[in-house]
Design goal:
The protein has about 80 residues and is of the alpha+beta class. The chain has a domain of about 55 residues. The protein contains four helices and three strands, in the order αβααββα. A three-stranded antiparallel β-sheet has the order 1-3-2. Helix 1 packs across helix 4. The longest helix is centred in the C-terminal third of the chain and has 12 residues. The protein is globular. The termini are far apart.
Length: about 80
């Protein structure tokens, strides 16, 4: 199927690296909980507790802004002093 015929073509390749997205981009929730060493349930418990802010992006997607994700990952791994 041509890209012309696709309604919403998606590229599997990310345009920006993970380190760039941690500085000034958006990460998907699954990326954040896997980098933080958490499971899906404990991640969403932390969202509910206000430890990480989940933002709505578009109609169906949500994400975590890069600096917020970095802070959450560091605190989850105990790296806040570094």
């Amino acid at each position: 199927m041509n890209d012309i015929n696709k309604k919403h073509p998606r590229s599997k390749d990310n345009l920006f690296s993970l380190s760039e997205r941690l500085l000034h981009g958006v990460l998907r929730p699954q990326e954040v909980w896997s980098l933080a060493g958490k499971g899906k349930t404990s991640f969403y418990e932390d969202v509910k507790a206000g430890k990480v802010a989940l933002r709505k992006i578009g109609r169906r997607s949500s994400g975590v802004y890069g600096p917020d994700a970095k802070r959450y990952i560091q605190s989850s791994l105990g790296l806040m002093g570094e």
